[in-house]
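Data availability excerpt. The first of two example chains:
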Amino acid sequence: MKRISFSALLFFLLVSSFIYSQEKSNLRYHAFSGTLMFGAEAGFTWGITDYDELKPQVEGRGVLEYFFPATSAGIFGIKGYMGAGYVGGKDNNQNPNEFRTNIVDLGGGFSYNFSVKDAVFPYVFVGASHLWFNPRDNNDKSLPYSGRNFKVKEVNYHGELGARVLLSEAISLNFNAGIQFSPNDNLDALSPSGNNDYILHTRVGIGYSLFTEVDSDGDGVIDSKDQCPETPVGVRVDDFGCPLDADNDGVPDYKDKCPGTKSGLEVDENGCAIDSDSDGVPDKLDKCPNTPAGQKVNELGCPDTDGDGVYDNYDKCPDTPAGAPVDADGCPKDSDGDGVPDYKDECPNTPSGTQVDEAGCAKADTVAVVLQGDTNFEFNKDQLLPNAYPVLNELAETIKRTPAKRWKVEGHTDAIGSESYNMDLSRRRAQAVVNYLVSQGVNNSQLEVVPLGESQPIATNDTQEGRAMNRRVEIKIIK
């Protein structure tokens, strides 16, 4: 019988502990967190001894228990207690046929306490005690020890399951059932049977807790530390008990309809960035805060109808075709200043002052190109410099578009040196230009070399600046 009862109770302890351990933690202060509880309990004992018939007896005890601080559904406690009562049994085959042993228990141990919806608090307890006992019969007379010599005090070991029900913040109703193991077979004073005694307990009592901390809004932060004591149920909070505000816009997450607002933006009561002109760009970032309704805007909140990067209110050319490079005024660029914008200009490097057609190319009957000697030829030589190539390339395209026209290439020098030398240098430089144009696909028959030496100056030869202007090659159409 002893073995069956013990096994059943042990199974109940293990299963109950496992079930309660599956409860999900709420990460809030446990109702008993940091409290010291005084309790008084009364109940019944059942002695599992050499007497076959269980005979319940009464007992009572006082309890002192401290619960460690915790913000979880489970909490540890340390408990001490002192109790007194009786253990009894009946067996018509024994002499005497009944016994009733006085017991006094002083012990302690550790508990682990669960929480079920903050109303019921199951727990498990293990501990040890020092037991004093005095075997007596049902008439309260001391039993003979049957010639045995044993001590009437011993260390016992305890296991206990229980539950507390809160009646108020400080008062709880306590229920428990437990088992107390004796290392001996002496509680009934009979000769040893080979099985040690143990005691089953059931108790009910009341507890009063000191140092209780209240968490009125149930957010997991006790009122004494809660800076936001009226947080709605279920709202996540920080260490100060205030609702989380992940984007730091001043509107808590549970109210925030725009939870990813950028830092520094002004928001409305819904946590959304204020956008006075409703263009989709927050006021703080809007460079054009009064955009008329319905207009498309860029990332700065400004309309740019033609998409050229210049806002409409600054754009002097609001209908620029898409992709056309523009200047600061939003107008198409005209790099060579010929009046034809770059995106239309088929001859983008037309010399300044040249009359051009609608494609930006020089008109065939007005072309005149001047290559200054100092920047387009090596000094005192007929070798072209790379600086001359862009202008000559453009001229070559113009000449090829007018195959019926003929051109003269005039070479000019300053007056330094002999006349014959200068004439030869001017011829060689003019010929170098012709050779380059032919290399670019121009028909040689359209070109005529005209060496003029120093005979047609356009500036004085008495100054360095004047002489530089006179050293040149001019390409002109022959009318």
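And the second chain:
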Amino acid sequence: MTQFSPTIEAYWHNLFLRGDVIYRGEQLTVVISSTLPPDRRLMLRQSVGGQLWAVMAPDIASQLGLSSGLRSGLQPGFTEALLRQRLQDAGIRLYGADKLFYFSAASQQALLQQAPVAHVRQLHAADAPLFTRFQSRASAQDLDDAYVELDHWAVFGAFVDGQLVCAASMYPWDGEQIADTGVLTLPDYRGVGHARNVIRAISHYACEQGYQPQYRCQTDNLASTALARAAGLDLFGHWQVIDMAGTISADNG
């Protein structure tokens, strides 16, 4: 079994198990929590081994016919399929799942022993002209998807002939010692390892600062999944969040 940092394990444990556990089975745990933020009133997390955790706000639970206490509305043998059917019947939609990647303890040790790559370095405010030109050569969709910004907590880039061709940035995640990562490579420079090198460099920096690097991508993004693997990251699980815009509320459903 892959071992991850206690920081990562504690973050996801607290996020999903802070509340009333109304159902606990071998493959499914359901929790009602009154401390969830408005945009995360329902979340699902599935481990690599297939175990699913569901946490929801009381109003969402009510729409599903669930409640805290002995009369939770769930019977022994409740399954993920039954939960998802209740969500569908209630008109509650979820965004597509994200894959969550982190460095395992062993992978992080190897990362910290790696020598820096010559053409990759940290970017600073003085690099604004280079970064602006880099952004001008990328599509609006790529910029939006990657969310790489020069004013983020940490920014690294790869250079070819003095031109910035790949950049990655990180920012602290949910106020934790976890740093979420975005990366963008210009189309003409993809497939030759620039993104891998930049992710490893910025992750090395984050680890030295006491942060755990985090990389997320949609489950159907094969290129990003391959990049995560190439960079030495390990799959932690899958995460889904309620789509508030696509969900029928109890008031107007």
